[in-house]
Design a protein that fits this description.
626 residues; alpha/beta; Rossmann fold; 7-stranded mixed beta sheet; 5-stranded parallel beta sheet; 17 strands; elongated; binds thiamine diphosphate; binds 1-deoxy-D-xylulose-5-phosphate; binds magnesium ion; magnesium; Transketo_C/PFOR_II; thiamine biosynthesis; magnesium ion binding
Length: 626
């Protein structure tokens, strides 16, 4: 049956039994294909019936379906003509792992970061009404994404504004890890308390039987109903915010789903359908461990065994071990995550120091200012966060942390190109977005051993400090003593040279070493520098290079505009060193799409060969020794 589905129109032709059969085939397809490509298996297995019901009841793309985070839009992509592309999922120039407007007219909103769907839906509903169109606008948001502040901002607007818009809350009790927060607790109460539903049905039955009488009786009945509604209606919180709450609905029951969606279509004003699903449904390993199977690499279908990555420890695991070790001696250390305990490597810290660990949900703004508040009281908060997600806390970084010069450590993971998640997740803006903030210090290690030292240095440092490190494995150097404090703002000269200096930032050092080897093979001898700090710069070294007639190549896995290289260029301009030629290498001014990191580096010109080539251009102009 799956092969007959080329568009949502094909779904609408099916009867309920056929839809159930199709759901089974979709699950088989996902489990089989993702065992080879990897991807967000558990989230998508949980929304098979929901997605089929959506395309059955609504008319995409006239009706707008907006997926929050969008990691669970594979089924939507399968039903909208892209089944044949799944062997290229999240691969270079292949199918994107998130909604992508240039892939299909059915992808009306691009996501990757959480909690944007309601704001986008409200925008589309306003535009629809101004253009006097009649479409339905539906946002599908998970219980995890609902912990994001933007979602509340949008609900606040929707409930006040009152126009027609539908929110489908896909509640599977999970974020990546088990979901957290008061909203989560509230949803659990609704989800699990059948008493509400039974009592509500009985009361509504009784109220309907009160003979319609005029005057006082009717008023009493109405007030009684409102009072009881307050007690009994499950989603009273949403009702009080101006939504019509429908639910809880079994998210794997087509009939119940379609009834609720059709009721929503007839209901005026904002509607919230509370759907209960099982993350990973239909594949036992994913049901049992939806955290691992949230975003999974290749796995063996029969056993669910995920293929362990070989080679050196990941930067993430070195961070997790190091911060846990440091916290054993330094009681000031507190660790914070925004719904990413696994991804940031904080699970061990959480188990070791449960009272010094805080998972605030998908709330990076809150996490940043929470850290600031903690720091005002003399403790040492460490906010572990992906580079791309810290973008959410930018004003808090400026206004709360740096302006007050507070002792907050930002452990910035996934800094640089991240590979399969592509343009919405590239960690390439943080150097630029932090560098211009007064009081900020930014460092990046050349390898996993130096990451230990930088983390220790950061916990000793007074003031806001960011240690950024890449996704994936280290370079394979031995880990020595953690307690090695680095001098702030000092670079490390790895190789002395002549004529050209290559200043490599962080994980670009190994590439720069290869480039230096190539250049030496041609008889050149570049100086090779592990920059270590993007702010403050090693001014003494920069001055030496100018005095000794060097030209400079800077290399960073971050936006060229405003990055480390820009800082060097600015420094030479400010200090009148106008004859030092500075060549900047980094991420150009465009969004780097999904693929492997190596393919992405090829695309942006960040390979060892590119570095060697760039340095080569500087030699003929190399100035004489000063
Ligand atoms: C701003 C932001 N922070 C963190 C993430 C990482 N992230 C991706 S999916 C996810 C959990 C989403 O949970 P939910 O919305 O319930 O969807 P489910 O996977 O349960 O279907 C998180 C934290 C993100 N995408 N965006
Ligand atoms: C959908 C989402 O934002 C996360 O699942 C993200 O894909 C995790 O990235 P890592 O795989 O780098 O942990
Ligand atoms: Mg969830």
């Amino acid at each position: 049956m799956l092969a007959t589905i080329n568009s949502p129109q094909d779904v609408k032709k099916l009867a309920l039994p056929q839809l159930s059969k199709l759901a089974g085939e979709i699950r088989e397809f996902l489990i089989k294909n993702l065992s080879a490509t990897g991807g967000h298996l558990a989230p998508n297995l949980g929304v098979v019936e929901l997605t089929l019901a959506l395309h059955y009841v609504y008319n995409s793309p006239e009706d707008k379906l907006i997926w929050d985070v969008g990691h669970q839009a594979y089924v939507h992509k399968m039903l909208t003509g892209r089944m044949g592309q799944f062997d290229t999922l999240r691969q270079y120039k292949g199918l994107c792992g998130y909604p992508k407007r240039n892939e299909s007219e059915h992808d009306v909103w691009e996501t990757g970061h959480s909690s944007t769907s309601l704001s986008a839906a409200m925008g589309m509903a306003i535009a629809r009404d101004l253009k006097k169109e009649k479409s339905h606008v539906v946002a599908i948001i998970g219980d995890g994404a609902l912990t994001g502040g933007m979602a509340f901002e949008a609900m606040n607007h929707m409930g006040h504004d009152g126009r027609n818009v539908t929110v489908i809350l896909n509640d599977n009790e999970m974020s990546i890890a088990p979901n957290v927060g008061a909203m989560h607790n509230y949803l659990s109460k609704i989800r699990t308390n059948d008493g509400y539903k039974r009592a509500k049905e009985e009361v509504e039955y009784l109220l309907k039987r009160i003979p319609a009488v005029g005057g006082t009786m009717a008023k009493i009945a109405e007030r009684l109903k409102d009072g009881l509604k307050y007690l009994l209606v499950s989603g009273i919180l949403f009702e009080e915010l101006g939504f019509t709450y429908l639910g809880p609905v079994d998210g794997h029951d087509f009939k119940a789903l379609m009834e609720a969606m059709n009721q929503a279509k007839q209901t005026k004003g904002p509607v919230l359908i509370h759907v209960i699903t099982k993350k990973g449904k239909g594949y036992a390993p994913a049901e049992d461990d939806s955290d691992t199977f949230h975003g999974v690499g290749m796995y063996k279908i029969e056993s669910g065994e995920t293929l362990k990555s070989e080679g050196p420890p990941s930067y993430t695991s070195v961070f997790g071990n190091t911060i846990t070790k440091l916290a054993a001696d330094d009681k000031r250390i507190v660790a914070i995550t925004a719904a990413m305990p696994g991804g940031t490597g904080l699970k061990k810290f959480a188990q070791t120091f449960p009272d010094r660990f805080f998972d605030v949900g998908i709330a990076e703004q809150h996490a940043t200012t929470l850290a600031a508040g903690i720091a005002t009281q003399g403790l040492k908060p460490v906010f572990a966060v992906y580079s791309t997600f810290l973008q959410r806390g930018y004003d808090q970084l400026v206004h709360d942390v740096c302006r007050q010069n507070l002792n907050v450590v930002f452990a910035i993971d996934r800094a640089g190109l991240v590979g399969a998640d592509g343009e919405t997740h590239q960690g390439v803006f943080d150097i630029a977005y932090m560098r211009s903030i007064p009081n900020m210090t930014i460092m990046m290690p050349k390898d996993e051993n130096e990451l230990q030292h930088m983390l220790y240095t950061a916990t000793c440092y007074d003031g806001p400090v960011a240690v950024r490190y890449p996704r994936g494995n280290g370079v394979g150097v031995p880990l020595d003593d953690v307690y090695k404090q680095l001098p702030i703002g000092k670079a490390e000269v790895l190789r002395e040279g002549k004529g050209v200096a290559i200043l490599a930032f962080g994980n670009m050092v190994p590439l720069a070493e290869k480039a230096a080897d190539m250049l030496e093979a041609e008889g050149h001898k570049p100086m090779l520098v592990n920059a270590r700090f993007a702010k403050p710069l090693d001014e003494e070294l920069l001055l030496r290079l100018a005095k000794e007639g060097y030209h400079v190549v800077t290399v960073e896995e971050g936006a060229v505009q405003g990055g480390f290289g820009s800082a060097v260029l600015e420094w030479y301009a400010e200090h009148g060193c106008h004859d030092v030629v500075v060549e900047l290498m980094g991420i150009p001014d465009f969004y780097v799409e999904h693929g492997s990191v190596n393919e992405q580096r090829q695309e942006v010109g960040l390979t060892a060969e590119d570095i060697a080539k760039k340095a080569h251009t500087l030699w003929p102009a190399g100035r004489k020794q000063a």
